[in-house]
Amino acid sequence: MYNESFGSSLKRGYWAMPVAIRALITLNVAVFILQIFLQIFSSSYSNALIQAFAFYPDWQTALFQPWRMVTYMFLHGGAFHLLFNMLWLWWMGRAVEESLGPRTFTVIYLGAGLGGALFDVMLAPFLGFNPVIGASGAVYGIMVSFAMLFPTMPIMLFLLPPIQARYVVAGLIAIDMLLVGSTDGVARIVHLAGAGVGYLLMKAQQGGQDLSRYILPIEQFWYRLKGIYQKQKSKPKNDNMYSVSDVEIVEETDKSELDEILEKISEKGYDGLTKEEKKKLFELSKKN
């Protein structure tokens, strides 16, 4: 362990991240690398990518190109823009995802990003129709969620004494409020709206609402597609030839336990499983 290489340590740290955060950081970094490669060949290519997937805060875009309200979250204007968003997401998002589960975390993240875009549409006639890119609105929703879950958690900032999380997040929101309408090119309204939507979603979750149910149908659809693909892959080549290489062999006792766990997931979602059930599901999945 003490002689572990940098690459091995980086790989171990990457796979140790919660699943939703790992997926989001991977997507954001991958898209930014694509932006860099396009910029190397020609700035017009990089600009074309931004023009194709950035969000333009007008009703026509929101109605007829709604995918932009999601794709804009994965584009960034520079390395520092990406770095700060991903650092805040990793610092505060980890505890949020571990507390709420990946589905609820994803609903808050995407909900804050979507809310930021829609709120920008409403205020664009007063503040200007400027294209929006970046994950900041979604990240602000996660930061607010962290402050609500762990309000007194000390946060270490550069050259400052430990400050409670609620004051750090409130301070960042206050700065954005003071700079609304400035010409610095930062979508302050998206930040503020993302924070507000994050707050409302967390209040709903704490009030007994199960936010994970909004992700569950998408996940079930994905598993159905995956199952169809696996069945097609394992089909025999002809009527007289049968292959067992892709067959999953599970004992009858394991089958019944697996069926019970999957039924519970379909009703309450993965976040509704106990630690023992999650462990059992992981053990059964290793037998694939």
From TrEMBL:
The keyword Transmembrane applies. Keywords: Hydrolase, Membrane, Protease, Transmembrane, Transmembrane helix. Residues 254-287 form the DUF6576 domain. It holds the Pfam family DUF6576. One of its GO terms (biological process) is proteolysis. The chain crosses the membrane at residues 21-41, 69-92, 104-127, 139-160. GO terms for molecular function: peptidase activity. It is found in: Membrane. The keyword NADP does not apply. It is a multi-pass membrane protein. Residues 65-201 form the Peptidase S54 rhomboid domain. InterPro entries: DUF6576 (IPR046483), Peptidase_S54_rhomboid_dom (IPR022764), Rhomboid-like_sf (IPR035952), Rhomboid_protease_S54 (IPR050925). Belongs to the peptidase S54 family. PANTHER family: PRESENILIN-ASSOCIATED RHOMBOID-LIKE PROTEIN, MITOCHONDRIAL, RHOMBOID PROTEASE. This is Rhomboid family intramembrane serine protease. It comes from Fodinibius salsisoli.
